[in-house]
Amino acid sequence: MKDPEHGAKPSESGASAAGRGEAHKLVPRGGKGKRRRRKPSGSPSAIASRSGLPGEAGRPAALNEAEPARKRKRRRRSKAARQQGQAPAAVSGAAPAQETPITDKKGQKRGKKARHRRGLQGRPLASGGKPLAPERSAETQRPREASAAPQSRKDDLRAPYVTPGEPAAPLYAALDLGTNNCRLLVAQPTRPGQFRVVDAFSRIVRLGEGLGASGRLSDDAMERSVEALKICASKLNARSIRRRRLIATEAARAAENGETFMKRVAEETGLDLEIIDRETEARLAVSGCSSLVDRETKSVVLFDIGGGSSEIAVIRIGDNRSSRLANHITHWTSLPVGVVTLSERHGGEHVTPQSFETMVGEVEGMLDHFDGPSVEVLESASGSGFHLIGTSGTVTTLAGVHLDLPRYDRRRVDGLWLSDDEVSAMQARLLSWDFAARAANPCIGPDRADLVLAGCAILEAIRRRWPSTRMRVADRGLREGLLTDMMADDGAWRRGRPRRYQQRGPAQAGEERQRPHEGNKA
């Protein structure tokens, strides 16, 4: 069948077919609110010129004069785009197909169908199927590459803290080798009284395993600890640390071969650990939790249940609060009992209500020798401002079980308030579980399943001595106290930073910023 207007048989596929199918839409149906397009009059050559056929002379002058300037301008744009990206394909052995570009026709409309046909951006498509866009020069691309986002949020959190116009903040490191855990923190000061953790490491080594029976550190326990300390040494050597403090607590303090073990650590890892006394340990625990004591609080009993000892400090704050909370300690004690030593004496895997009460009674007997103020004295001086603060794996475990966390989350646990009834309910719940049930809980795990109830017994003895309606959970301790004291001594939070930090050259600051930062779960 021949085309009645052009006398040529159109193609059955391709752009010509699309143009043929759209030919009847050149004159849309009339109706209210519809704008009719004038049907061109004249010869077939004029109609072909209007349809954009290549090689034609263009539109007649009469139509150009009668058409508004806005329409002529739109047609010139469509023609330029068509010449740039839509050259008609020639079919061998046949006449050129009569093409009516969709872009040319649909550019006149703003309906939904028209937008769909010309693509999301309404641009003509090149032969490769990509929208036409001007090429970006190297100068234009460079700012986009420079402002690219970090590869991951974790990498951004581990990056050094840098204030514009100032050198990178110095790095501080604190290591705590306890009876049960080996922990490391690397941080840098940010806002006054706060710091940002750059790297962290924690591993259960059980250095005090068997210490209560033999009085010495076992070979296996020392070997586990040395392996963990080698990892800490590699992390410390990978960075430029301004100041570090590495301590060991009760296990090394009480063992006969504690000093010998410290010499072995220095030889094999290069780390010089300091065995601190119990008073220093109590003060560091208070310093680490200072940000969790509210301004309206007047008295606090803070306790740290460790693996081989438990430190308790009574804090009474007057009207003039010092920047260091440890300056407000009025009474303190260190009980020679922790979760490891208590569970070894009474059994940690199979705990009955009777054996649990026996453990509580043993700790209560130790507290009877402490001449600290009673809860009546503390409440009379502070009114409703008295409460407990617990910093240990025992209280954080109770908080995680209370929240039914699928896995332990420090952000939800640190600073959490627990009522007296909630603490009692959690202890009763743990006591009703057997060893397998405790090990299956994601907030306890098999490494702590035999220690958690011994910690609850120590906690219960403290609660009976100083009853309180609420307790605050602190997932922090000696490492945070070490960092806080070192940064305060160096004046890291003073306004404008000390001169000694600003004397560092830009090369040294840049080296610190470019160092890789490994991320380890604390």
What portion of the residues fall into strands of 2 or more residues?
Answer: 5-15%
Mean of all residue-level pLDDT scores: 75
User: How many distinct helices?
Assistant: 24
Shape: globular
What would CATH call the homologous superfamily of the domain at 288-478? Exopolyphosphatase. Domain 2
Counted beta strands: 11
What is the C-level CATH assignment of the domain at 288-478?
Answer: Alpha Beta
Radius of gyration: 39 Å
Strand order of the largest sheet: 8-7-6-9-11-10
Share of residues in helices: 40-55%
Low-confidence stretches: 1-34, 42-64, 86-107, 114-163, 498-522
The major β-sheet equals: 6 strands, mixed
How far do the termini sit from each other? 81 Å
Say what the CATH topology of the domain at 288-478 is.
Nucleotidyltransferase, domain 5
What is the second-level CATH architecture of the domain at 288-478? 2-Layer Sandwich
- Structural class determined from secondary elements: alpha/beta
